Amino acid sequence: MRILAISDYRGPVYSLRPEGAYFTGLAKRGHEVTMMSFPDSSYVDEFEKAGVRFLPVHPVKKYDRKFIRALRGELDSRKYDIVHAFNKKGITNSIICLLGRKEKLVTYRGVTGYASKFDPTAYLSHLNPRVDAITCVSQSAADYLRKQVFKKKKIYAVYKGHDLAWYENIFPADLSEFDIPQSATVGVCVANIRKMKGLKYLLQATHLMKDTPNLHLLLVGQGMDHPKFGKLIRESPMQERIHLAGYRSDVVSLTRSSNFLILPSIKGEGLPRVVIEAMAQGIPPIATRVGGSPELIEDGVSGEIVEPRSPKALADAISRFCHSIDQLPDTGRKAKERIGKHFNVQIGVDMMERAYLSVLEGT
Asked: Which of 240, 274, 308, 317 has its CA 20 to 30 A from that of 6?
């Protein structure tokens, strides 16, 4: 196959690897892969090592004439089978460019929800008739989209695979910078301050955890200085044991230093990377029954799944972890094994390859 992908590869390499592994893996299997991305992409070396051809061009607006001309020229010169657009600007420009052409257009969906067949703007992207197929980061996201499509459209769940070797040389961060004592039990929550992340329910749960005096919460993400969020913390009986890290580039190390991860989301999750990164390091997660989290976590075995919007459910799960601290390493080991067996890189490449072949074969 000849595959042309359009995506944004700026940012830290560790966050780009799971998606990049699709294309480096396909190239290693003998497929011709070209990636169109921004000139300052940080993943260029990885692509070139694997034989992925890199073109330093990416749309900067939803209708970008310069990019459309570049894309048409590339399609005319190499005769691609698949064009796979991974973000909004890439999708809208690809739809315009591919009108009347034979190449199959595939789009990518990384969240669950937020697309309605009754929303006219949805037909400018994934629900546009020119789109031949959609790859979704989880089965949950795929199931949701299938309900939004009036006419039959190919929709596939394609996991972003992880390699346990990526995490072998991650060293724990020193939590003393947050005044967290070495003897503390630490629950880390990695989430920007957005309503969908459900952080207020986690802070409400702290009112119900009087039997966990050794528990400290480490909150990592942007927006922690919001006045409403600060008020919730000041009202918590655990105020002195809630530590704000803000935005950090060493999220994986902070997770490694903690006893468990908490993700209290109320909607929107695709296949949460923070949960995968924790599990891949042997850190057991507590997550809500939202999006792809239940696909990642085998409830009661490799972590816990609780109902969303329930402070009591969160408090109960956190208390159970705190009172079975000696058992957490075994839960973490099972979490790590689950990622290695069911969400590894090769499985992700297999799923993507099968999706492409199915689109081309019309099955």
From this structure: 274
d(CA 63, CA 50): 31
Count of domains forming the chain: 2
pLDDT in tens, 3-49: 999 999 998 888 999 999 999 999 999 999 999 999 999 999 999 99
Burial of 160 (0-12, 13-18, 19+ CB in 10 A): buried
Q: What is the pTM of this model?
A: 0.93
CATH code for the domain in which residue 56 is found: 3.40.50.2000
Locate 314 and state its tokens.
């969160």
Amino acid at 228: K
Q: Are strands 104-109 and 53-55 parallel, antiparallel or unpaired?
A: unpaired
The domain in which residue 11 lies consists of 2-161+344-361
For 278-309, b/e burial (b = at least 16 CB within 10 A) is bbbbbbbbbbbbbbbbbebbeeeebbbbbebb
